């Protein structure tokens, strides 16, 4: 990935200094770990210039799952910390074209997803949510000869003259998952040709599926995902039934190698959602060092107290954030 930069401690410290608040847990723990020209955004902010945030959602399911929430939770922090406007795009047109859904169904899913997004608590006076069905055509027409994907248009303030009148040079910051980077690299190439400022990005790692780190949560697989509409009991059952743990299958291996927290999904979820660093560190030490077995052994009648406590902590943390 050309020109991508890692988010280091000096950048995190700078965000803290400029916002006069503690950095978000996603910054502290490396969930958002990379960026493109975020420093330029901070430079302009330090000069007293504003910017706006842009993020989006492709509505293909009834409800958002936890993986979908990561960029929205971080975007809410950015909006509050920097006191800037936010544009959220619902790409219902893409789901209509590629998911074999009707226009009416994609629009219905967009409305349902918008409810979940609104529930994240964005500032209603500084947030604009829109559907791609029927908007942006002037900028899309300009951009389409240059790139094949029209997600570029919301990166430019002229797409929203009612929001940013006379602010054609306003910078845009895009919080997104790392897999979105190629789309916006093209957008950055197009921007100077159209006389616009290049958008900046701040990018996160994937939120893993319940089954392990090899995949991300999928809206099409309910056993891989925890949805915002799941009840506390649903969350508990899914974690207990499907979450991959880092314990060893055999007692001898567990005593020798301990639990592998790098692969443990309940602990990984805690690293996203449990804000108390000292509590997370306590769980890391207690869970990682105890000579406990996996759920396979628990099913054979052998008790697994520490793994259960880690899962219980995950339930509580997710309940607090739901």
UniProtKB/TrEMBL annotation:
It is an enzyme of class 6 (ligase). InterPro entries: aa-tRNA-synth_I_CS, aa-tRNA-synth_Ic, Rossmann-like_a/b/a_fold, Trp-tRNA-ligase. Transmembrane segments: none annotated. Keywords: Aminoacyl-tRNA synthetase, ATP-binding, Ligase, Nucleotide-binding, Protein biosynthesis. Pfam families: tRNA-synt_1b (PF00579). It comes from the Eukaryota. The keyword Transmembrane does not apply. Its EC number is 6.1.1.2. Residues 288-322 are annotated as: Disordered. Residues 299-322 have a biased composition (Basic and acidic residues). Belongs to the class-I aminoacyl-tRNA synthetase family. This is tryptophan--tRNA ligase.
